[in-house]
Specification:
Largest sheet: 4 strands, antiparallel
Strand order of the largest sheet: 1-2-3-4
Strand content: 25-35%
Order of helices and strands: EHHEEEEEEH
Number of helices: 3
Number of strands: 7
Shape: elongated
Structural class: alpha+beta
Length: about 160
């Protein structure tokens, strides 16, 4: 079993949340001014204000996602367990759709593993922990690749029988 903890900064989350709320309220104020008639001749400004408000709402809502908080990952032979603020989610390797390793030019600085499941996406950062990243990625690709190969063999058998 391999365990890995990803710590996220509470201040960054709060800053994005307040900035998103500010943009949302600013956009709403522009739209209220437009619809009350105080700025009725500025249609382009109202459209931009609406877009700014929508972006602010997007920022505000997405600061409550599970990957914005501290997460504990556990990788076993059976699957991946994710312990987050909203509870514990267990994924078997059949639930994992794709696992991608992202390595920058200077591979010793950091590495990322992007894991896609059927419902969620996880971006796991590894700063200065290249060996651990390689271990986890090898474990993921071994199980996911074996599953994909077994599916292809079964499809080939079915096609050969027909």
């Amino acid at each position: 079993m391999i365990r890995y903890h990803v710590k996220h900064n509470k201040r960054s989350r709060r800053t994005l949340r307040y900035f998103g709320l500010f943009l949302f309220l600013f956009g709403a104020m522009i739209l209220v001014l437009f619809f009350t008639g105080l700025a009725s001749s500025h249609v382009i400004g109202a459209i931009l204000g609406g877009l700014i408000g929508l972006y602010g709402g997007y920022l505000f809502i997405h600061t409550y996602e599970r990957d914005k908080y501290d997460i504990d990952y556990e990788f076993t032979d059976k699957g991946m367990t994710v312990k987050h603020r909203w509870g514990v989610t267990e994924y078997s390797y059949e639930d994992i759709v794709d696992a991608t390793l992202i390595v920058p030019e200077n591979e010793y600085a950091y590495s990322l593993i992007h894991v896609k499941t059927k419902k969620h996406k996880y971006l796991i950062p590894f700063t200065g922990k290249k060996e651990l990243c390689d271990q986890i990625y090898a474990l993921l690709t071994t199980h996911v690749t074996l599953r994909d190969l077994n599916e292809e063999i079964e499809k080939a058998k079915q096609n050969a029988q027909q």
